[in-house]
Design a protein that fits this description.
single chain; alpha+beta; Glutaredoxin; 4 helices; globular; membrane; SH3 domain-binding glutamic acid-rich-like protein; nucleus
């Protein structure tokens, strides 16, 4: 799979996950960065794919990937935004 992907879930009881997912997509949309939203709640294979790419069997959304390269999770994303290194974080630069 190529391009920027944000692994998310439409089914969660966690307000924190919902909030983090919303913030990631809001920032990407605001910066006009194209991405594909991958809903892991639709297929366990997608959840497993996300966790394999993240290198963490317990990883939870949101997780960000560019092609086959893992970019990071919400905390790393926010850090990149704050440090103005988002393009590098997303492996777009």
């Amino acid at each position: 799979m190529s391009g920027l992907r944000v692994y998310s879930t439409s089914v969660t009881g966690s307000r924190e996950i919902k909030s983090q997912q919303s913030e990631v997509t809001r920032i990407l949309d605001g910066k006009r960065i194209q991405y594909q939203l991958v809903d892991i709640s639709q297929d366990n294979a997608l959840r497993d794919e996300m966790r394999t790419l993240a290198g963490n069997p317990k990883a939870t959304p949101p997780q960000i990937v560019n092609g086959d390269q893992y970019c990071g999770d919400y905390e790393l994303f926010v850090e990149a935004v704050e440090q103005n290194t988002l393009q590098e974080f997303l492996k777009l630069a």
